[in-house]
Amino acid sequence: xxxxxxxxxxxxxxxxxxxxxxxxxxxxxxxxxxxxxxxxxxxxxxxxxxxxxxxxxxxxxxxxxxxxxxxxxxxxxxxxxxxxxxxxxxxxxxxxxxxxxxxxxxxxxxxxxxxxxxxxxxxxxxxxxxxxxxxxxxxxxxxxxxxxxxxxxxxxxxxxxxxxxxxxxxxxxxxxxxxxxxxxxxxxxxxxxxxxxxxxxxxxxxxxxxxxxxxxxxxxxxxxxxxxxxxxxxxxxxxxxxxxxxxxxxxxxxxxxxxxxxxxxxxxxxxxxxxxxxxxxxxxxxxxxxxxxxxxxxxxxxxxxxxxxxxxxxxxxxxxxxxxxxxxxxxxxxxxxxxxxxxxxxxxxxxxxxxxxxx
Amino acid sequence: xxxxxxxxxxxxxxxxxxxxxxxxxxxxxxxxxxxxxxxxxxxxxxxxxxxxxxxxxxxxxxxxxxxxxxxxxxxxxxxxxxxxxxxxxxxxxxxxxxxxxxxxxxxxxxxxxxxxxxxxxxxxxxxxxxxxxxxxxxxxxxxxxxxxxxxxxxxxxxxxxxxxxxxxxxxxxxxxxxxxxxxxxxxxxxxxxxxxxxxxxxxxxxxxxxxxxxxxxxxxxxxxxxxxxxxxxxxxxxxxxxxxxxxxxxxxxxxxxxxxxxxxxxxxxxxxxxxxxxxxxxxxxxxxx
Lengths: 359, 289
What we know:
heterodimer; A: mainly alpha; two-stranded antiparallel sheet; B: mainly alpha; two-stranded antiparallel ribbon; 12 helices; about 75% helix; globular
């Protein structure tokens, strides 16, 4: 039994490493084939994919319903912007942005998990937190609200945020192509770390908590601590996405805390498939391209361009009602079903193995 | 003296706003355990109906906000219950997600129809003088409405047959069904009533806030915090939580800014939930309703 577990964990880790390698391949292939502008656009989507994977980890793997992932995204972004504008080294600002977002997630997690809030309440509290952040930031429009040299700017946001620069040459901001590699590299790295983590002993304990909290607690796991750690890691990753986005756009405004972004993160995870890490990345990128296509306004209903929120909302409702598992697992199950139909003799071992793997 | 009166009235006004925006949600959540993320958008829809009926259709202001807005939103709620919520009973998280989808779709839909601009009606009554100060008469009216809403819901739940049936069907649907009541219809009606009260809230608040498609987000956090902070008892919980959060938010607002007041509201709520995870009425006043 123990060897079987070992093998399972090992196979899981290998699968994660293999997926990461494929990711590296895609990174170079896309860099070689896409036009400059497409690369620029893709960079933004890749950064959003980091946000998607952070929620996929917290929610899909840890079973913690977080409706306010944008709170950590926004915190990371604002921290990066304010520090970088105050002549901080951009690498250090990025790091501190991640740390601040993770630290805030830990603080919030302490209140929620040690207060033993149930699922649904947690969703509502996280939602409220991000709304309050947005409100607070929106109200800082006056010239009184400054942090060092940087003005918070309220709803106008903070313009001319310094772009990331290489630690070797702090005075030289990175070129867009280099930022593409930074974003893609960060995404792959985050995937690798989180993927390996889900197959570690901690990850297995977190999965146990997700499946049955009471049982995990009775076995002797400290459920609250496990959830806290999971939540803080997810918050830090979301902060990384926010900081990268502030650098990429050279701009951040209170919409970084917005409900729409939190909702989008949920939709990416649901469309991609709850419980996987790759699915939400693909879901994010696919839906961003869909939004882009819709915003070009060629597709019209009764003469009016289709509103993006309307489309996202309908997608979310449809997914929950019709495809609750998400597209990736549903397609996988469908393929497996066809496979088993085609080869009726060897169906027994393939089904549990497939169910056990979380790539 | 005048100043004390003003502070008191402002506090009551803040409490009454919380009651008005939370009561519809409290009914839907308290009775059905359904968390409706689109609650803020129900309020938004009510506000739009109230404003559009007054401005474009020339309906009397009071009929628009007190009758048409709740009626239309209530019917919309029944429709939503039939199409979406009904399929997800018992799946709390899925309900949350589906209603969030609904919320986005409603924002998008209203933006497409009415555009992303603020519309409004002016509040009636004008100002009321108290010593050297003046307060809005409409705000005083809202305080009375909030009290009436709480007492009304309490009375319906406690003393009418419909309230009895509703409470029975929520506590034990199978027993209710065995006694010849269709729980399905009770759910539908309850959701409709909750939605109608949200629509009423929108209509009532529209003269103060104006209406814009994204306005729901401004209410939803406060409404949720009030309902969750209140706990199991619908009327008592909402009343107590609104009183606590509303007064804290207003007092902090007096010494700082409205936004800090909002943030204080959240922090108090977090502390309340840390100490009383079941809300105020989960610990105290357990037998209240």
